[in-house]
């Protein structure tokens, strides 16, 4: 079973993502902020991290920057953001995210991207 860490400070959005992916059989863990996400990836392995860009205290970019290199090499990161300009997408990818998805998004689009990333 594929394990996914969902990191977002918005409870409702996090719940929507988790419910959608759990219904498909993925094992989901949640983190409300970047600090919690960094703790979780330090002692558990995941097949994918879905990471919000704009969170208080530690942004999604800062989470990526603080990840140990060995985790960065093996953990695909899907960055979710309300920033929709091409320059924003490029900046997110250059900082280390593997995939980019603009908010708002449909659950169907999310599932399609997750399945593509995980080769399901």
UniProtKB/TrEMBL annotation:
Pfam families assigned: Response_reg (PF00072)
SUPFAM superfamilies xrefs: CheY-like
Keyword Phosphoprotein: yes
Modified residues (4-aspartylphosphate): 52
Name of the protein described by the UniProt record: Response regulator
Record domain Response regulatory: where: 3-118
SMART domains: REC
Keywords per UniProt: Phosphoprotein
Gene3D superfamilies, per the entry: 3.40.50.2300
PROSITE patterns: RESPONSE_REGULATORY
